[in-house]
């Protein structure tokens, strides 16, 4: 990283050594290398990720069945699609379910994952195998999870058979609209908690052992140590996990669609924004409308994500800045809001937790150099 | 005097013994084991139910939905193994997953190399552009993406699945790879240059071997997520001969909804490749993920 900040010393020595003509051919070669290496990825990314999102915004203004061009075969309706979406009780219901799922995922999985991570962070034989096994539900595909749980949770399925053995009469977990959302929450928690646990364990392992030793010397009990040391220092991991979970919940589609099916979803009590989009857009053949729903989902997700980043993740970004670049970076952050927004956007995933440091530290400074 | 030193020696040896003992992983507290095993049972119980259920007959399942096979019955698995349907879908899934994996690894490695080790004006912008891609999940783009691929004539083709999956997998891959490539010391590059190695030669001879753990993580994540992908194949594939396993499982379970045992056998066979891939490389994946969080 420091190398990148300092600029390439190799280049400087090269420039000093070589005659002028060779210098320009060197920089040309460098340019060509950059071009060859980055064009494939850029083209793919712009073509299949950025372009469709822009297209969605355009199509969303049309009433269009998906054939030919919207401007020829469709009718321009301005913001009508959006008006219909926002006043449609089915969409409001789907939005409600989605938000409920997002909040419940955080409330249910968070504390449980921390408890499980505490358990699996103890030193004992067989810990490695256990850690691998709890990650299995996360690796198994949504279709298999949906099919498997769908069979087990039928009114005559395995779950009710087990419950009957202990004297409980189970309900129809899937078909009963009142139970359905809780069934879905249970399956979601089962599927995704392994990921949360692994993240929490990683966070716990980065807490210095000395803190616990000192606390032990002072006579702290196990639970006191977890409450006063582990929990506060786990903050940044929890906040990043919560962000990932939030984004995942807002996009939830596969599990609901597989278990409750395309037609039942709106009356089954488990519809989400994404299932609404597919049902009203693609399946109904209203492509203009479907694209407008996509835009609404995107905007809602973006607003929630940016708000979360601004109020919650910001602290982690500040904490991530360490070392000699600190002052320079801060100054830059204040003076350049764009760089700030960029680095906030950069801190999107867990895998980015590390790179947020890198991007914050190098990107703005690099820009400063150029300017 | 000998009497005085003897206990000291004793103490010393017992201290050494204690040290050694503490280096070994101890057997844990029974309570820890109890809860850990309970947790494991909850996590893999349903998966085992699917696998074991495949060894039962439908009448066994109807009589006691939660019981064990009695007797064990291999016919469900045999039927799936001998049907062309399963193997065809397995091949489709393999083609798509391997294509996606290779594409993501190659393109992400190339562009990450540029972002991490070249100095140019748009570098910061390029990184932020890809990083922002994490905010564009496939759910939001699926409808226009379908229209785009239809215009390109890529409906019902494996290439139509592979290309968008590569594009949507790039951000995560780049975010994992850039720090890896950045951490390779510049001195190595200088030394290579003095020895007459070009930048691209350096890429092949030094960068690739040294960033192997990151490349492996990216590759496995790409493979597993393509293997499990549901939404894009659902939109793109109408022709059931092109179906990947997730669609195949769903189709099979709708068509054979009365034949539960058969569905369970089909389902459990379809998850095995991803499970094997994951178990073989799980340390790398978990390590890669946790390494990223530890920062």
> How helical, in percent, are the residues of chain B?
over 70%
CATH-derived topology of chain B: MetI-like fold
Main sheet record of chain B: none
Mean pLDDT of chain A: 76
Question: Which CATH class of chain B applies here?
Answer: Mainly Alpha
Spell out the CATH superfamily of the domain at 91-285 in chain A: MetI-like
Distance between the termini of chain A: 20 Å
The CATH topology of the domain at 91-285 in chain A is given as MetI-like fold
Distance between the termini of chain B: 56 Å
Specify the structural class of chain B.
mainly alpha
Secondary-structure-derived class of chain A: mainly alpha
Read across the widest sheet of chain A, the strand sequence of neighbours is 1-2
> What would the principal axes of the Cα set say about the shape of chain B?
globular
Membrane topology (chain B): Multi-pass membrane protein
Pfam families (chain B): BPD_transp_1
Family (chain B): Belongs to the binding-protein-dependent transport system permease family.
Transmembrane segments (chain B): 31-52, 94-115, 127-149, 161-181, 202-227, 261-281
């Amino acid at each position: 990283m420091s190398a990148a900040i300092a600029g390439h010393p190799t280049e400087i020595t090269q420039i000093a050594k070589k005659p002028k003509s060779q210098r320009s051919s060197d920089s040309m070669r460098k340019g060509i290398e950059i071009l060859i290496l980055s064009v494939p990825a850029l083209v793919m990314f712009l073509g299949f990720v950025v372009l469709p999102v822009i297209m969605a915004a355009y199509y969303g203004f049309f009433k269009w069945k998906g054939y030919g061009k919207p401007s020829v075969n469709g009718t321009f309706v301005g913001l009508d699609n959006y008006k219909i979406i926002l006043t449609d009780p089915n969409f409001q219901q789907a939005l409600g379910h989605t938000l409920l799922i997002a909040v419940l995922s955080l409330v249910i999985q968070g504390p449980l994952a921390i408890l499980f991570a505490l358990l699996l962070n103890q030193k004992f034989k067989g810990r490695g195998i256990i850690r691998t096994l709890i990650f299995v539900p996360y690796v198994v595909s949504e279709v298999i999870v949906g099919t498997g749980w769908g069979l087990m949770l039928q009114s005559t399925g395995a779950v009710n058979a087990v419950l009957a053995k202990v004297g409980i009469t189970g309900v129809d977990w899937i078909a009963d609209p009142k139970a359905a959302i809780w069934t879905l929450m249970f399956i979601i928690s089962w599927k995704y908690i392994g990921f949360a646990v692994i993240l929490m364990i990683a966070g716990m392992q980065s807490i210095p052992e000395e803190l616990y030793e000192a606390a032990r010397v002072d006579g702290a009990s196990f639970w006191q140590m977890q409450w006063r040391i582990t929990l506060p220092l786990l903050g940044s991991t929890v906040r990043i996990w919560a962000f990932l979970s939030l984004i995942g919940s807002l996009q939830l589609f596969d599990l609901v669609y597989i278990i409750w099916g395309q037609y039942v979803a709106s009356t089954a009590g488990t519809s989400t924004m994404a299932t609404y989009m597919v049902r009203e857009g693609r399946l109904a053949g209203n492509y203009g409308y479907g694209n407008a729903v996509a835009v609404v989902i995107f905007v809602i997700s973006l607003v929630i994500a940016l708000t979360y980043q601004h109020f919650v993740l910001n602290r982690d970004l500040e904490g991530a800045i360490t070392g000699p670049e600190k002052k320079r970076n801060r100054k830059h952050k204040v003076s350049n809001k764009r760089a700030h927004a960029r680095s906030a956007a950069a801190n999107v995933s867990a895998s980015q937790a590390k790179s947020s440091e890198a991007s914050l530290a190098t990107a703005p400074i690099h820009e400063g150099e150029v300017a | 005097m000998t009497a005085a030193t003897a206990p000291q020696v004793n103490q010393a040896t017992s201290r050494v013994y204690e040290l050694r003992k503490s280096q070994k992983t101890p057997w844990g507290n029974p309570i820890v084991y109890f809860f850990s095993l309970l947790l494991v049972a909850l996590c893999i119980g349903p998966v085992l139910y699917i696998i074991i259920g495949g060894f039962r007959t439908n009448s066994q399942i109807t009589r006691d939905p939660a019981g064990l096979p009695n007797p064990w019955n291999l016919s469900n698995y045999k039927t799936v193994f001998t049907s062309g349907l399963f193997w065809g879908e397995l091949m489709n899934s393999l083609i798509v997953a391997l294509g996606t994996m290779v594409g993501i690894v190659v393109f992400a490695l190339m562009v990450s190399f540029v972002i991490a080790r070249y100095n140019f004006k748009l570098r910061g912008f390029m990184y932020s552009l890809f990083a922002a891609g994490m905010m564009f999940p496939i759910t939001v783009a699926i409808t226009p993406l379908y229209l785009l691929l239809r215009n390109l004539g890529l409906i019902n083709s494996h290439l139509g699945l592979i290309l968008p999956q590569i594009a949507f997998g790039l951000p995560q891959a780049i975010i994992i790879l850039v720090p890896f490539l950045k951490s390779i010391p510049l001195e190595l590059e200088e030394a290579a240059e003095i020895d007459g190695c070009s930048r691209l030669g350096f890429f092949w001879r030094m960068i690739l071997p040294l960033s192997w753990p990151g490349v492996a993580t990216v590759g496995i994540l790409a493979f597993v997520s393509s293997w499990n992908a549901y939404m894009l194949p659902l939109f793109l594939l109408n022709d059931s001969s092109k179906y990947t396993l997730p669609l195949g499982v769903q189709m099979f379970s709708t068509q054979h909804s009365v034949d539960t045992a058969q569905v369970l056998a089909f389902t459990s066979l379809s998850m095995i490749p991803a499970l094997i891939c994951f178990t073989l490389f799980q340390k790398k994946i978990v390590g890669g993920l946790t390494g990223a969080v530890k920062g």
